[in-house]
Amino acid sequence: MAATTETDHEEHTGTPGEPPAVPRRRGRGRGLALAVSVFGELLITAGLVLGLFVVYSLWWTNVMADRAADKQGEKVRDNWAQDRVGPGGPGALDTKAGIGFLHVPAMGNGDILVEKGTSMKVLNDGVAGYYTDPVKATLPTSGKAGNFSLAAHRDGHGAKFHNIHKIEKGDPIVFETKDKWFVYKVYGILPETSKYNVDVLGAVPKESGKTKAGHYITLTTCTPVYTSRYRYVVWGELVRTEKVDSERTPPKELR
Prior knowledge:
By secondary structure, this protein is α+β, with helices and mostly antiparallel strands. It has 3 helices and 8 strands, in the order ααββαββββββ.
């Protein structure tokens, strides 16, 4: 047996009076690194999913809604051309097909099909809908004084009122039916109000400054953009009507 030296003794026992060295625990460090890596991958995956959802909400729903609106709009114009406005024959109103087209040059998105109702089922097809609840809109085709109140999405699902903020006082709003053009002039704008403020839809929209019965139009949508917290409101008043000619020549405001 080899002799035990003093050096050998110190290597095995350490310096007298000091505790023995504790070996480094490498397993804990590796586990932490693995957890951080997994968490990072989860964040990346969540980011990709969120990105795809945004693309779907703000782009693809617009594509699908525009297709649906175009198809329905073509059906309405075909009915007009064939003099088949409704089940009651020529001159009858078919609210299921759509009652006409809204033109707002300041928003720059062409004609907007108008249908009955303001439910998500209606508006998600890329159209504007006239109110039936909580305040019933007065259709201009009725000839009665009142408020032709409308709503449409500001983002996603066609976003027909996305550029409503570009409308200014004095701008035209034109509603096209089978045989008439209804030309309105914007006189009031409310950039923000509660979504529960139904007074803006009244037959006489007093919040717009009007106190007497007349022929009004009201456009409403959500604000700020990409939220539904408040409502943006635009009011117009009828200035004249024009009969549709054989060429469907638009009024001067749309040329």
